[in-house]
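Quick review question:
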């Protein structure tokens, strides 16, 4: 190498650039899934057409990201009997989601938990828990998960 000639190495990465990249890594990793929408199962809600409180619960479920299909029926009693909903747990609407029957104003968070944990439930064992959660923020009749 000749005297007086300085060689530049443009491929050096400064510590500042390394620290900036390391700081941005968690942000980049947390947004990696943004392009993939969470796929939630369809919630089919059967309700009495004369009940007004169901619409607020349906909006809550939709706001939580669940796709919803609404079916209005004037014969809710036979519908609930066909699904095996005990009369003492009956409410103004019944939802079906991924093999579960949800009775009343059960919060979306409780439904997400139900779907994540997938317990083998039928009736009273879990119903008081769902009822207790449902009293927060939803008007109308007491709710129960079946």
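Suggested answer, residue by residue:
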């Amino acid at each position: 190498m000749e005297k007086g000639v300085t060689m530049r190495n443009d491929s050096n990465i400064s510590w500042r650039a390394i620290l900036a990249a390391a700081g941005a890594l968690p942000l980049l990793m947390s947004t990696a899934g943004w392009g993939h929408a969470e796929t939630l199962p369809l919630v089919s809600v059967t309700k009495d057409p004369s009940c007004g409180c169901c619409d607020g619960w349906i909006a809550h479920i939709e706001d939580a990201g669940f796709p919803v299909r609404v079916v209005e029926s004037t014969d809710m009693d036979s519908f609930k009997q066909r699904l095996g909903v005990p009369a003492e747990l009956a409410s103004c609407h019944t939802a079906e989601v991924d093999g579960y029957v949800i009775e009343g104003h059960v919060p979306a968070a409780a439904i997400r938990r139900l779907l994540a944990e997938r317990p083998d439930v039928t009736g009273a064992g879990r119903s008081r828990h769902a009822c207790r959660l449902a009293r927060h923020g939803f008007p109308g009749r007491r709710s129960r998960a079946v």
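Why it works: Residues 124-146 have pLDDT under 50 and may be disordered. The helical segments are 15-30, 53-63, 76-83, 108-117, 124-134.
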